[in-house]
């Protein structure tokens, strides 16, 4: 029975080691997933911060664009008001041909607005720019004709200066609008990266939880095996003590029996050895 218990204890000990090793492996795996998750979460925060920075820059440039547009429109309105005066002057003074400079200017403003707000192919945008140049050339020709009249020459100069300032502002508006679009694209890209890293972090966290739960389960099995080993140790220790007592009892009986034989020899006057005397003393027969 004792040997059977010892063999069973060996099996439980081997099983305990397996659970301990598997627990340690799973804990190491959980730690790996935790590090991955933390790294990805930090990366997500960085991406979101970069996206936010680009959003702020986009909004900043868009606000500047809006402000400059208002200034540009104000200048164009002032120029158009002068051309209205010129057209009124032309009506009052016959002989000056009316070719609609104001309407041509409105066409330019419309085309410039389309250039800024719509997406064109390279060929279409070049075609649009050429059309704007043609209209501006027509306006210059008509202005040159009007400037021959001294009474409206000054008004045309003022209108031209206003249009030049408005055109410069429009060029700046286009640059800022492009910058705003660039930062918008950067913002979208960083948010996309943040979504991806957040998704990967969620997966790493899921793997971490699963590995940790499995490690906890293996630890419970290990603890159960340790408890069972202690129970076996108690039983085996008890059996060994009992076996030892039985063995000692048998030995004592054998010694007692031998001592009784020697004592009979002593009583009959036979010569005893030193060992015989010592045996009699241990047996308390003398």
Radius of gyration: 53 Å
Number of helices: 5
Compute the separation of the termini in Å: 41 Å
- Give the tally of β-strands: 0
Q: What structural category arises from helix and sheet content?
A: mainly alpha
H/E order of the elements? Answer: HHHHH
Described by strand count, sense and barrel closure, the largest sheet is: none
Catalogue the unreliable spans: none
Instruction: Note the beta-strand portion.
Output: under 5%
Mean pLDDT: 83
Dominant shape: rod-shaped
As a percent range, the share of helical residues equals over 70%
What does this structure look like?
With 286 residues, this protein is mainly alpha-helical. The chain contains 5 helices and no strands. Helix 2 (101-117) packs antiparallel against helix 3. The protein is rod-shaped, with a radius of gyration of 53 Å. The model has no long low-confidence stretch (mean pLDDT 83).
Question: What order do the helices and strands come in, and which of them pair?
Answer:
Layout: H1 2-92, H2 101-117, H3 122-146, H4 150-267, H5 274-282
Helix pairs in contact: 1-2, 1-4, 2-3
Key attributes of the depicted protein:
mainly alpha; 0% strand; 286 residues
In short, what is this structure?
The protein is an all-alpha fold and 286 residues long. Helices cover 91% and strands 0% of the residues.
């Amino acid at each position: 029975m004792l040997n059977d218990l010892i063999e069973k204890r060996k099996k439980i000990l081997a099983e305990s080691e397996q659970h301990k090793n598997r627990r340690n492996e799973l804990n190491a795996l959980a730690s790996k997933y935790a590090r991955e998750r933390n790294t990805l979460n930090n990366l997500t925060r960085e991406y979101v911060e970069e996206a936010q920075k680009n959003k702020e820059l986009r909004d900043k440039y868009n606000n500047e664009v809006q402000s400059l547009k208002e200034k540009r429109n104000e200048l164009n309105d002032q120029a158009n008001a002068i051309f209205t005066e010129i057209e009124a002057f032309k009506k009052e003074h016959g002989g000056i041909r009316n070719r609609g400079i104001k309407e041509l200017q409105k066409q330019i403003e419309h085309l410039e607005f389309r250039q800024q707000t719509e997406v064109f192919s390279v060929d279409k945008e070049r075609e649009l720019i050429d059309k704007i140049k043609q209209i501006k050339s027509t306006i210059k020709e008509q202005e040159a004709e009007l400037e021959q009249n001294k009474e409206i020459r000054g008004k045309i100069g003022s209108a031209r200066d206003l249009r030049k300032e408005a055109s410069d502002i429009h060029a700046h508006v286009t640059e800022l609008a492009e910058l705003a679009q660039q930062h918008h694209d950067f913002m979208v890209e960083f948010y996309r990266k943040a979504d991806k890293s957040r998704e990967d972090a969620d997966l790493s966290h899921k793997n971490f939880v699963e590995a940790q739960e499995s490690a906890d389960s293996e630890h419970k099995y290990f603890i159960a095996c340790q408890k069972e080993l202690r129970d076996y140790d108690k039983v085996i220790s008890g059996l060994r003590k009992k076996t030892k007592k039985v063995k000692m009892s048998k030995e004592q009986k054998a010694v007692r029996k031998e001592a009784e034989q020697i004592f009979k020899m002593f009583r009959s006057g036979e010569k005893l050895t030193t060992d015989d005397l010592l045996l009699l003393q241990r047996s308390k027969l003398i």
